[in-house]
Amino acid sequence: MKQRECLNCGAPVLADGHCSRCGMNYKLLAKAYNTSNYYYNLGLDRASVRDLTGAIDALNLALKYNKQNINARNLLGLIYFEMGETVLGLTQWVISSNYLPGEGNVAVRYIKEVQSDSEMLDQANQLAKQFNQALTHARQGTKDLAFIQLRKILANYPHFVQGYLLLALLYLDSGNYDKARKALKRVLRIDKNNTQAVRYLAEMGVTPREIIDMKEHSRRIDVDSAYTDEVQDQSELETFVQKRIEDIDKPDQVIGSYKEVNHVRFNLVYVSVGLLLGILTFWLLILPTKLDMAGRDIRKAQLEFSEEVSRKNTAISDLEEQITELERQISEKEKAEEEARQSLKDSKDAFTLIKTAVPGSTYKNLCAEAAKSISDGAYAKAIDMCNVALQIKEGDEVYYQMGMAYQGNHDEEKAKAAFLNIQENYPESSHLEEIKGYLED
Q1: Using CA atoms, how far apart are residues 244 and 250, in angstroms rounded to an integer?
Q2: What is the C-alpha separation between 355 and 348, in angstroms, rounded?
Q3: Residue 426: which residues within 8 A CB-CB, separation 6 or more?
Q4: pTM of the model
Q5: What average pLDDT does the structure give for the chain?
Q6: Distance from C-alpha of 303 to C-alpha of 325, rounded to nearest angstrom
């Protein structure tokens, strides 16, 4: 009978069913891997019918049972890409390429395609920055700025689910349920069982049957086209104009028939007397009245003009105060954006370091880079390195570097948790004497 090999490390399996190298139980490991493949197939089925939220849940369960399930990790990256989450998708592919380097892993090809497009990562960073700005505007109550920012984002990134959900939430808060429905329909076209979209619709009073109908109708939406609200606004304008045209075409008053007057009846005397009386009446009665009315109109116009000038002056004063306040807010926002820009630069440097090491990044390299970052004082960067290394392998070295990074970052609680992990799980670690002082505090 052929010698069984360990599913974890490839070493021969002993007669008692345990691996000769890592000590894993073959039957338990095989059961976990089969369960992982089951959830991968479930996620694949859900993704094929655009149930992206359900697919993400199933694929995360698949990776929980087998973090080296390459197919599940690659599919999860594709789903994140479809929903506009570029960085999350790239992270899954980087981890996948570390488990299985080489052309046999499609994640390597995906990463090369991203690397060949120099604008893609910049666009992903720009998307994150713009969405964070929109989120900040929404939290601060400046909804108009949030609306403008979100429309700009969705015009350029029509698959960005989080953008549609935030836009729908703002419309719900403003009482504009029609436009909220439109944004949520777009979400259901991209991810038909998105739980947040369904919850928002339920809060609007939409029945489950109507939600099902909305999912069916959402199939007609072209999700690759830029999102805009102008079509609805134009339709309302056209309806208004059409109503006015109908009012003109069907006037309420009907003009009576015209009957020609026979002037032959009137003789020259009557005509002369009529002209004379008309002239006298105009000069004696009508003209003074007209002049007096004109004077009153002039005085009334002057009074209205003075009131209008006063109102304008008041409005100008209010606007000047608003401008001053807006300038102050802009100054504060620019300061906050500068701080966020610096933080984003640090994160981007860490990501670039990981990306340029693909596919050669290993557990050992990442631990070494984390140690170098700690010595340079870049503790946040070291923590990022350790988190990626943990996706590849768990060991006392990565927990030691993570604890030192948290210690340097003044996060005593997390540092102590990392050192306790070494003490409990790695009794033969060479770092036990070094961390002993930290554990006694």
Answers
A1: 10
A2: 10
A3: 395, 396, 399
A4: 0.46
A5: 79
A6: 33
